[in-house]
């Protein structure tokens, strides 16, 4: 039985780590497609296993890809484009197989098609654009020139993209004729309307899982991620650690310099955290001046290294007039999952207690 997604040289970026991770996702998508098309009874547990694997892929691959872009020194506008693309994929992978929603073969089929479309477009359009910009910079272009030149180019990926999508639907038709027995013209109209509605719904759901001020995932997203990683830890026995951070004296910034300055401080802290953590770590804003860093597959020792780097790179902030409004002090609580913890909430509580212990010591430290 042919695979749903046929990998070929068209998709190569010739960056080994990126290509290997792309092929890993292709394997997961084909695994999901086999579940849908096998004709066997629908198994939510198997779907959850594939969903968890896709989430783990996204955490590692997107972090690596964003780190590669920063290391290469590409234009910040391109990095922002990657951030947005990755956010959309992370949302789809999170809601895939959500126990709170009703699952059906038809729904999973739509999600499967979405994942294939996303990956084809992401590789051929976004990632190939990254490679072309890197090559342009090696030839002497500035990051801005490379980005602007890329925007002016015709999308040479259109033909292979259309060919790949056409091949996808031919395979689906061959493997499950009954799903495509409706009139083609009518189906296309219905599918177009469905895609428009799903896109609108995705945008609304993204707004509910990300913080408008900093662009970081919010508390709701943090709890979803922590729950999934907790289950992965139970299944595979891998370590899991948290950093809970609080900006010391934040209230004084709001009281003395106004809420606009306080908001600017939160945005700066968020960006500094992004720059300080490892590619596999996930930064969230829980609310107010409180931030959470989830450290998958990391013990306390590894999380402590990250916490110390955050403290080392935290600097005072001055207003536009040159007046220091914040001294750069952060209190960080560190917690690692252990056998006494029954739920992920216990891990979060341990990090919270450690953070308040750091505050009781005067702040500006990790405990």
Question: Please, could you describe this protein's structure?
Answer:
By secondary structure, this protein is α+β, with helices and mostly antiparallel strands. The chain folds into two domains: 201 residues; 148 residues, Alpha-Beta Plaits. The protein is built from twelve helices and seven strands. The strands form two sheets. A five-stranded mixed sheet has the order 2-3-1-6-7, with helices on both faces. The chain has a two-stranded antiparallel ribbon with strand order 4-5. A hairpin with a 2-residue loop joins strand 2 and strand 3. Helix 2 runs antiparallel to helix 3 and helix 4 packs antiparallel against helix 6. It is globular, with a radius of gyration of 23 Å. The termini are far apart. About 4% of the residues have low confidence.
Spatial separation of the terminal alpha carbons: 55 Å
Strand count: 7
The domain tally reads 2
Low-confidence stretches: 169-183
- Order of H and E elements: HHHHHHHHEHHEEHEEEHE
Summed over residues and divided by their number, the pLDDT gives a mean of 82
Task: Assign a percent range to the helix content.
Answer: 55-70%
Radius of gyration (Å): 23 Å
Number of helices: 12
As a percent range, the share of strand residues is 5-15%
| Widest β-sheet, arrangement of strands | 2-3-1-6-7
